[in-house]
Structure formats: C-alpha cells, structure tokens
Amino acid sequence: MASLPDDYQHTWGDFAYDAVYAGAIGGSIVALFFLALDTLLGRPLFTPSLMGTVLFQGATASEVTRVSLDMVGLYSLVHISSFGILGCLVAFAVRETELHSKNPFGVMLGLFAFFEWGFFITTLVAMPGVMAVLGIARVALANLLAAGGIALFLTKQHDPQTWKLVKDVLHLA
Q1: 52, 51, 47, 46: which is closest to 67 by C-alpha?
Q2: Cα distances (Å, whole numbers) of residue 94 to 5, 17, 104, 144
Q3: List of residues 6+ apart from 25 with CB closer than 8 A
Q4: Cα separation, 63 vs 137, whole angstroms
Q5: Using the 8-state DSSP alphabet, how is residue 121 labeled?
Q6: What are the extents of the domains in the chain?
Q7: pLDDT in tens, 41-52
Q8: How far apart are the C-alpha atoms of 101 and 52, rounded to whole Å?
Q9: Closest to 52 in 3D by CA, of 25, 79, 80
Q10: What b/e readout covers 11-50, taking b as 16+ CB neighbours within 10 angstroms?
Q11: Of 86, 79, 94, 78, nearest to 14 (Cα)?
Q12: pLDDT digits (tens, 9 = 90+) for 123-148
C-alpha cells in the first residue's frame, strides 16, 4: 500500500464502501466456489444445506445427504451476515494498517491467518463434522480465493500504483 499523506482523512463513507464491497466480494466468491463445486459433483446447493442443517437442526454432518432449500436460505443469512462483519473488520484493519504500519503486507497476511483460524475453530465448534465432509483443502481454497478478491478490490481502491502493476502482470485492460 502506498504511503499516505499526513493529512489523510478516511471518512465513514469510505469505510462503509470498503466494508460493503469487501464483504460482498469475499462472500460471493466463496458462495460461487461451492455452488460450482457442488454442481460439478451433481448436488447443487449441498454445501449451504449441509451447514444450515448442522447449525440449525443439530444434525450430524456425515448423515446429511439431501438438499433442504429452507436450510440453504437460513444458512445464506448467516453467510451474508458473517461476510458483512468480516468486511467491516477488514475495512477497519486496512485503514489502521495504512495509517500506522511500516509493513502492511505482513499485517494483512497475519490478519488473513487470524481470520482463517477463527473460521476453522468456529466451524469445528458450531458445526462439528462439516469440515470433514467438505474437506479442509476445499474450504481453505475458497477462503484464499475470497481473500485474493478482497485484496484486489482494496488494492484498486487504495493503491493505484500497485493496481496498475497488477493489471500489467495479469494483462488486463
């Protein structure tokens, strides 16, 4: 991230914009990743149904075999809320990192690790067995893709010079 001038002002509007978009981008990437994966495996919407059934009905993850649209809807509310909160935390962390950190990349990498472990622990406690059914590698890949999407968005918003480099490397218009 670029160094900011001493008189840098980050308004509530800027914060809200970053929070909403970071949460929406991250949540959408995870949802689309699992929708595509579930569809390729011949069971569209299985992942949110599984997570909703375990979370709201207390079912054992390994016994969930069918898709329940009620559970998909309920879990979608949890998913949207969770990524909304995550978006706020990330927007706050980016602001503080820009203002105070000499090593923004290290701070953001540490935050990703913190959020990832937080997700794994929360899932293990609130939805036992889900991680075993879904697979740690799949969940980690979905979260890594989401983090990458959020990072690209925030880079574009906060550091035009780095964004130009990213575009050049990826050969984007």
Answers
A1: 46
A2: 16, 13, 8, 17
A3: 146, 149, 150, 153
A4: 21
A5: H
A6: 12-170
A7: 999 999 999 999
A8: 39
A9: 79
A10: eeeeeeebbebbbbbbbebbbebbeebbeeeeebbbbbbb
A11: 94
A12: 999 999 999 999 999 999 998 899 88
Dist CA 6 CA 159 (whole Å): 16
- Specify whether the backbone of 168 is left (phi greater than 0), alpha (psi in -120 to 50) or beta: alpha
Amino acid at the residue 150: I
Tell me the CA end-to-end span of the chain in Å, nearest whole number. 22
Angle between helix axes 104-126 and 69-100 (nearest 10 degrees) is 150
Instruction: Report the alpha-carbon angle 89-71-150, nearest 5.
Output: 25
According to DSSP, residue 63 is labeled: G
